[in-house]
Amino acid sequence: MENCLFCKIIGGEIPSAKVYEDDDTFAFQDINPQAPTHILVVPKAHISSMDDIDQASDQQLAACLRAIRVIARQQKLEKGYRVVSNCGPDACQSVPHLHFHILGGAQMADRMA
Ligand code: 5GP
Ligand code: ZN
Q1: How far apart are CA 71 and CA 56, in angstroms?
Q2: Residue 113: its pLDDT value, please?
Q3: Are 85 and 46 in contact (CB under 8 A)?
Q4: Would you say residue 1 has pLDDT above 90?
Q5: Over residues 67-75, mean pLDDT
Q6: Do 44 and 56 form a contact (C-beta atoms < 8 A)?
Q7: Which residues of 60-87 are buried (b: 16+ CB within 10 A; e: fewer)?
Q8: Is the CB of 94 under 6 A from ligand 1?
Q9: For the chain, what is the largest distance between any 2 Cα atoms, rounded to a whole number of angstroms?
Q10: 3-class state of residue 14 by DSSP
Q11: Which 8-state DSSP code applies to residue 11?
Q12: H or E element: which one contains 40?
């Protein structure tokens, strides 16, 4: 999709620190980390948010979840991690391309909002 920041990152038009890639999924370091490990996992297909997953195939969605597990192992997050996907304005989604934050590497607060 034109003018989508994450589509440009996936396409290499905008540089990123890639940590993982497969046929359906791309993952890279968040530019403004909120935890010692903060990685964004995105489907290569442009899907705007969780609210639009009807436009994605089961294969594309499952690939994201499986990638999260692979990346957590690669990043040695054996003590745990949090997976977050902000959807829409109430959740402060700032980039309208579905993404999963992997946050880890430190003890987190025991509440989410
Ligand atoms: P959201 O607020 O939509 O849930 O998350 C968007 C995330 O994208 C934020 O954590 C933000 O730091 C990250 N981000 C925004 N622009 C860039 C960029 O150009 N490169 C990278 N690597 N991350 C970005
Ligand atoms: Zn996109």
Answers
A1: 21
A2: 84
A3: no
A4: no
A5: 98
A6: no
A7: bbebbeebbeebbeebebeeebeeeebe
A8: yes
A9: 39
A10: coil
A11: T
A12: strand 37-43
27 pairs with which residues across the strands?
20, 41
Ligand number with the minimum distance to the CA of 94: 1
How many other CB atoms sit within 10 Å of the CB of residue 11?
11
The verdict on the CB of residue 100 being under 6 Å from ligand 1 is no
Please tell me the distance between residue 46's alpha carbon and the centre of ligand 1 in angstroms.
15
Distances 22 to 88, 105, 113 between C-alpha atoms, Å:
27, 24, 32
C-alpha of residue 111 to centroid of ligand 1, in Å: 22
* pTM tops 0.85, yes or no: yes
pLDDT(59) > 90:
yes
